[in-house]
Design brief:
The chain is mainly beta. It contains 2 helices and 13 strands, in the order E-E-H-E-E-E-H-E-E-E-E-E-E-E-E. The strands form 3 sheets. It has a 7-stranded antiparallel β-sheet with strand order 1-2-11-8-13-6-3, with helices on one face. It has a 4-stranded antiparallel β-sheet with strand order 7-12-9-10, with no helix packed on it. The chain has a two-stranded antiparallel ribbon with strand order 4-5.
């Protein structure tokens, strides 16, 4: 396992073994079965190419063009499933914060999906780091600074890599340029990429 620092982003290469990745991928499928994937529509009226769902006390959604955390799945009306212990154990093993995350956002990328540069800024709690877990197909991850339009760098995230966004990187712009799918299925998801983002959320912003 190797750790890199890129503009404040801490990248743990290959932190999860293949066996652990397979276990996490299976609990992700359980989350999706309980809380079906959504394709949010942005505030500009454009459907996102990424599909998403959540686990935890709150799920990140786009509702009537507004980005917010909600206690219930917007289509089923059910509370989100609990964050699986297996995923919480990964957060705890990093020893980066004194309490567990409130939200595990699950993003599903097919071969054509992208994620534009954005900040994670709806949580109301910015001292706590954000943790990103990659499973499945590799992706080109782009990182910037706290201001839109500044200089960026990119790196390839592989299955089993974990990114910690804390300190100066907590409110830095970041996104996924493209998915680097091989012709053959990958051993973890078959096709596609799963990204899990673990976030601590101020209860006051949960609707």
């Amino acid at each position: 396992m190797q750790t890199e620092q890129i503009t404040g982003f801490q990248i743990h290469r290959g932190l999860l073994s293949t066996e652990k990745q397979l276990e996490v991928a299976e609990v992700c499928r359980e989350i999706i079965r309980s809380a079906p994937l959504l394709r949010p529509v942005t505030g500009w009226g454009k459907p996102m190419s990424v599909r998403m769902t959540s686990a935890g006390r709150a799920g990140w959604v786009i509702s009537r063009g507004k980005y917010q955390y909600r206690a219930h799945h917007p289509e089923t009306g059910q509370t989100w499933p609990a964050i699986p212990d297996l995923i919480l154990a990964i957060w705890q093993s990093l020893d980066i914060w004194d309490r567990d995350p409130d939200c595990c956002l699950l993003n599903w990328y097919d071969a054509t999906a992208r994620m534009g540069l954005h900040q994670d800024k709806d949580e109301g709690e910015f001292a706590a780091p954000v943790v990103s877990i990659s499973l499945g197909d590799p992706a080109r991850f782009r990182m910037g600074g706290a201001e839109r339009g500044g200089k960026t760098q990119s790196t390839i995230l592989h299955s089993g890599d974990i990114v910690v966004m804390g300190g100066a990187a907590r409110l830095a712009y970041h996104g996924i340029d493209r998915i680097l799918a091989d012709e053959l299925p990958n051993p973890i998801t078959g096709r596609g990429r799963i990204n899990l983002t673990l976030r601590v959320v101020d209860p006051a912003v949960i609707r």
